[in-house]
Amino acid sequence: MGFFTKSGDYQPTMYDVLMRQKSLESAFYYRDLGYGMYLFVHKTQGNRQTYLVNSRTHTVYDVMDASGVFNLFKISDIDTESITSLPGADVALGLCAPYEFTIERFHQGRAQVAWTIDPAGPTVLYGMIDCEGKIVERFRKST
Fold first, then answer.
1. pTM to 2 decimals?
2. C-alpha torsion angle, residues 36, 67, 73, 119 (rounded to 10)
């Protein structure tokens, strides 16, 4: 829910803005991920702005900025020892997602995340997040 400023103006929250986008021809694509979770991705070519929304708690998680740098994840969310020799390790360690990034459907409050770190596509890191956008299984190369 939004709020009113001291001057009496209504200010919608990011949650209000994004949820309104679902019913409009908007700047974002959205995907229902189940479990009350939605993924919003900016439609503009080259803009990677991505949000994860928990409609049960009305919380918006800023996944990545327009240039594809993660805001939600940090280096400690990556099993760095397992990726150092992989093609694209520098992309992962820079917390960038210039290639494919997906969040699968939520099951029992968790969802798999796939993050392609190599432009050729074969190097994909996998992790798991919960409904608060927290890493519950660190990113690593699937074996």
1. 0.86
2. 100
